[in-house]
Design a protein that fits this description.
heterodimer, A: 9 helices, 69% helix, flat, B: alpha/beta, binds adenosine-5'-diphosphate, binds magnesium ion
Chain lengths: 256, 233
Amino acid sequence: MQHISEPFVSGESLIHASHPGFRVVCALLFSLVGALVLTLSAAIAVFIAGLIFAISARLPMLSLLKRLFFVNGFIVFLWLFLPFSRPGDPVFSVGPFTATTEGIIYAAVITLKSNGVVLAVTSLLSTMPIQLMGAGMQSVRLPDKLCRLFLFTWRYVHVMGEEFGKMKRAATMRGFVPRNSIMTYRTYAWLMGMLLVRSWDRAQVVWQAMLCRGFTGKFHTLNSFRVKGGDWLLLAVTTIFVGAIIATELFKVEVF
Amino acid sequence: MSFPIFSLRDINFVYPGGNDVLKGVNFELKAGEKVALTGHNGSGKTTMLHIIMGLLKPTAGQVMFKDREMKTEKDFRELRKGVGLLFQQADDQLFCPTVIEDVAFGPLNLGKSPDEAREIAKYVLCLLGLSGYEERVAYRLSGGEKKLVSLATVLAMQPEALVLDEPTNDLDPSMRDRLADILCELDVAMLVVSHDLNFLKRVTALEYSCHDQAIYKEASIFRSDGTPSDCKL
Ligand SMILES: Nc1ncnc2c1ncn2[C@@H]1O[C@H](COP(=O)(O)OP(=O)(O)O)[C@@H](O)[C@H]1O
Ligand SMILES: [Mg+2]
């Protein structure tokens, strides 16, 4: 059976043990600031802070590299275009296109800050099971609708994954081999169409099952959280990181 | 006079763009009754159960819970506290990461504290012989185990009546026997949809069948005094 794996959840660290609500706040704060920085030095700061989070969460190296690999898969494409997209000091040319220092720095900023934010968010959020995250979001008074939307998205992505697995197996059982043919594309189109219909139906049933068990829109959880010293420490450290990043950005600290 | 736990009065139902599924259905379940509902595939049994729970709205007729007519979603919330439905597809009934969280979901919604909810969940799991499953991941269980856990999630609501939609599907014979034992022991009213006559003989006392868009009482293999043939109420 297909399922969404949560490779970072089981682990022991200060971050794993801290309050889900605090972690959600820290992640929001950090990713907001991290996403907005424009200077190279601030981007480096974001990346370093992300690394520190990852190290203190003791994330399993292999899974982490895999996740970063996917993120950077997209970023590779940016490197094909961005270096040539800015006016400035020419570095080298390919045909009519000239790469500039400014362009390269711009691409580097994006690379560093996305990796930094992914590291931080992975350390803070992926280290808890999704249910805790829902409870965490509720405990810091994020709107109920948002929390519900989030939890259902997770549950339904799951449903879609399962349905897709089932149909793919059914097709394989009957000798379907993907080829570059009309038949293949038609089969895929059917699969996709059925996927939507069936996922919709099953999502409906999950919703009904929740209603039958007294669900009224609020998620409760078995775990009651107490705020501990470590939680404030986490918040303090994150605030310091964020403060440092903003300072670096505003005062245009030069790295080179 | 004592009211049935729930009853259907002159229920009609049509799926949008489909044919009539139910027409003039009357049915009631009294406290302590154990009723079987049989009928061909597609005869409308699941549809009827979903109407009882307020998951489908009948095109005509009334759903009553005790002495009150259920009209709005809020009314049905009351009904769902007293009547528990075990879905035909057990998979869809489980949506929390671990078994214990799933079983405690209902009690928490009913306003129990986390500690009480955990206690209830543990008790029910123990009742179903599922002690030790608490921290198991719900979606990685086998079909039969999922069915039992789904039953646990329903029992944890401590309902007065159980509505079971084909509970023995994908259970092996020994699991089926265990389920029959468990259901015989339970002191709640039951409406059991199944094609498994031996199972029904053990668990239920009255038989109704669903055909020609309506529900009929059967004079059947079951004993007539209202108790199941093989076990005491
Ligand atoms: N969502 C739906 N939309 C339209 N028709 C449906 C839907 N669900 C079931 N039906 C039809 O309603 C009839 C009764 O279905 P159901 O209540 O599931 O039967 P049973 O549970 O007795 O096997 C069937 O003919 C089925 O095709
Ligand atoms: Mg059915």
